[in-house]
Amino acid sequence: MAAANSVPIAIFAKLQAKLRYAPRKSKNERLHAIRYKILKMKKLILFIFLFTVKVGFSQESIRPVHGITLGYFNDRFGSHGMRAGYDYTFYEKTRSGYDPINVSHAFLLKVNLSFFRHPRADLSFVLNVSCGYRYTTKYGLMVEPLHFGFGGMHSFLDGKTYEVDNNGNVISGKRGYSTFVLPYFQVLGLGYDFRQKTNIPLSFVASIDAYSQRNINTKAWLRLATPISLTYYLK
Amino acid sequence: MRILILLILIPLLSACQKNTLYEGGDYFFLRNKGADMPVWVRGNIHSNVFIIHLHGGPGGSSINEAEQKVYLDLEKDYTMVYWDQRGSGCSQGKAQPETMTMEQFVEDLEKLVAVIKSKYNNPILFLHGHSWGGALGTAFLIKGNNQNLVNGWIELDGAHNFKKGLESSVNWIKNYAQNQISAGMDVSYWQEALDWYNTNPVMMTVEQMKKHCDTYLPKANGYIYDINNPLLTYFSGGTLNSPGGYSNGDYAQKNLVVELQKGYSDQMYKITIPTLILWGQHDGILPVDLAQDAMDHLGTPTNDKSVYIFQNSAHSPNREEPTLFNQKMRSFIEVYK
User: What is the architecture of the domain spanning B21-164+224-336?
Assistant: First the structure.
């Protein structure tokens, strides 16, 4: 028991001694170390970027990669609307070569313009870009776990806006609005790809999306959307 | 395939359903100092009698109270003006914390009155404030010549002197706790409550206020006298599909704590217009002695001010005894319109 304990104690003592007697680095040395770390980080980011580009563009397309999307948009389960967008599959690989009737791993980019009306509150447009992974089973079922993205939201008040100037005159007409940038996540998407089993160039995805809004009284609001999108793949 | 088509069609068709609860009337926004405040004007516009409803809270919502039976009944003969104050209820925009002051709220109300008068050809106006709305209404009326803009003031369990009201509220709940302990009911809970009040004699923080208002008062029925009253079901507090899907209550409460330490009793002599004071006998948050305080301090001639105490209500007689409340409102409005 004592022998087993003595090993970590010895390591700890060695480390302590090293730290105690390690010469204190000068300011320049510390700055140099930080710069070196940043450089290493930059190289890593560049490597990931180049790798992604290489994978994305060198991949032979096994089926159409461009799709146009039309669908239903629902903000917080009560405010209905529509969405239109563009799907770009920049990487796709199936388990057995290029046989489309098989499991598929794909990375895709989505650009969507959605709008919805929250009656008597606002009429909002959301433009967002998101990127993520899609898994398709050989039966055509699709699962899209977390997609990351960002976007912008432009909201008009759902009603006329009145202002009163300093002289007491009532000014009416101009509809109030607000614009802001927001993070946008597709939390989970589930769908079906008709191409796996038929020749129909369609797929649909129902998803739960989350995004934040910051226009209400300086407070961040989490908003949930449940869009259902139908994608038509261009030849 | 058919199932898939159905799955797509069902939500699309549900999008066509209408929410009838929030229909009718004029719905617009008042924009002032960063806030976009919704205003809903609904009822009998031909009556030319408009009642501006000042909601409680702070942070509550008039828009969501529009579904109450009592106001729907009043709308048959008068026009109700439901307005959500800055940083409250369904209001939008960017109301900065520094604009959350009583002065700013009064300015917003002045602008609302200007819009109503301009848009509806100078109608007869009554102000009706509940709880925090009672403080706002009082602050509006004691400023300059504002009281000349309205024909009458109806205060319902109002916070015209919140400072005094809070002291009274603490005493009310301490008495309640003592009675419960004496009766052997929930002794440990109420003993703990008494201890808390003894260690927090003055409430200055949001946390203290929340503990008092959201924990002990509801437990002592300080807001609702009879929680089994079937009439209470009329008020749902809004749904996600209502404009009240936005709820700013916390924001207003957090930023108006300082305002809740004030009282306007000493300036109420300036108010000389007809006034009706309505109060619930069992109110725990603004106890009934504040009704007499209002009567004592109002500058209104004795014949033009009156008080009525609802015997089966706590903080909201409009919800708890709507028929009687409605009668009192109508009688007052008919005399002074």
Answer: 3-Layer(aba) Sandwich (3.40)
